[in-house]
Amino acid sequence: MSAIRNLMPGYSSGFKWFVAGKARTLKARTPSKAESAIRDIKAIVPTANVIFLQLDLASLKSVKEASDTFLASSNRLDLLINNAGIMAQPDSLTADGYEVQFGTNHMGHALLTKLLLPMLHKTSQQPGSDVRVVTLTSEGHKWTPKGGIDFPTTTTTMAEYSTFTRYGQSKAANIIFASELARRYPGITSVSCHPGVINTNLSSSYRSKSRMGGAVLKMVAALIGKSLLEGTKSQLWCATGKGVVSGRLYYPIGVVHCGRGFPDDKALAKKLWDWTEEELAKKGYP
Q1: What are phi and psi of 112, to 5 degrees?
Q2: pLDDT by residue (tens digit) across 139-190?
Q3: What DSSP character marks residue 259?
Q4: What pLDDT shows up at residue 186?
Q5: Per-residue DSSP letters for 201-247?
C-alpha cells in the first residue's frame, strides 16, 4: 500500500479521503488553501503522507513546471483525478490565448494528463496495478454549443455566448477527452464523472456580478445542492470502486450516463484529441 501514489489538482476545494500509508500529491493554485486542506487531512489521518505542489491550470507553463517537479520526485502514479475547474467566468482569455474556462478546464488538464501519461502507463505495467484517470465534468456539458465543440471559438473570448455556454463547452470537452484517452490507452481506466450539484464557491465570480443570477444559483444550491462530503462520493467510486468501465461517463453514484452521446462519439473524440495535440505542440509541448 505504501507504494501507491495519487495526484489530484484542485484538492484544496474538494475532499479529505487520504488513507494512511498512501502517498498523495495535492495540487492547488493557492498555497494557503492547500495548507488548510492538508491540516484538515492530517487532523483526521495524522500519518497521511500529503505533498503540496503549486499548479495553475490556466497557465500551460505552470502545468509543465508542476509536472516536472512531480516526475522528478516520483517513480509511479496510480491515480490522477482531474478535479480542478472554474465556472461562470467573465469573457476573457488565458495567458496562452484560450477562452478562460476552456483553457483551464480542458487545455490545462489535457497537458497535465499528457505529461503524466508515460508514468501512468509505466505504472499500469506493474503487477497488480489498477491505474485510473478520473476527469470531473458537470451536468453543464448540456449547455455546450451545437455539435459539442465549436473549435474556432476556443481561441476567442466567446463574448457572443453566455458564460454558461462557455462553461458547457469546457465540460463537454472533459467527457470527450476522457473517452478518447480510454480508447488510446486500454491499460488505463479513464472515465469522466459528474459529482452532482455541490455547494461550493465555484460560481462565486458570477454571483458577485449578477445579483439576480446569483440569487437563482443560490436558491438552486439550497434546494438540491449536496455538501462537499456528499459531493465526493461519485469521484471516489470512480477512483476506487469495482465495476468501473473505462470510457464511460458516470453520474452519482456509479450510474452510467449517455452525456448527449459524447462518450460514444468517436469522430468528435478523435478530432478533439488531435486538435488538442496540435495546439499543445504550437505552444511548445509536443
Answers
A1: -60, -45
A2: 999 999 998 999 999 999 999 999 999 999 999 999 999 999 999 999 999 9
A3: G
A4: 97
A5: STTHHHHHH-HHHHHHHHHHHHHHPBPHHHHTHHHHHHHH-TTPPTT
Catalytic residue among 16, 171, 226, 233: 171
Provide CB contacts within 8 A for 39, sequence distance 6+: none
Instruction: Report d(CA 173, CA 168) in Å as an integer.
Output: 9
Closest to 57 measured CA to CA, from 78, 90, 27, 20: 27
Catalytic site residue from 11, 98, 161, 167: 167
Amino acid identity of 80? L
pLDDT of the residue at 223: 57
Distance CA 25, CA 73 (A): 11
DSSP string, 41-55: HHHH-TT-EEEEEE-
Query: What is the pLDDT at residue 210?
Result: 56
Strand pairing partners for 126? none
Q: 56 to each of 51, 126, 174, 208, how far by Cα in Å?
A: 16, 31, 17, 22
Q: What cell numbers appear for 134 in the block?
A: 478520473
Distance between CA atoms of 136 and 234, rounded to whole angstroms? 10
For 56-95, what is each residue's pLDDT tens digit? Answer: 999 999 999 999 999 999 999 999 999 989 998 999 999 9
Is 167 catalytic? The answer is yes
Tell me: pLDDT of 204 over 60: no
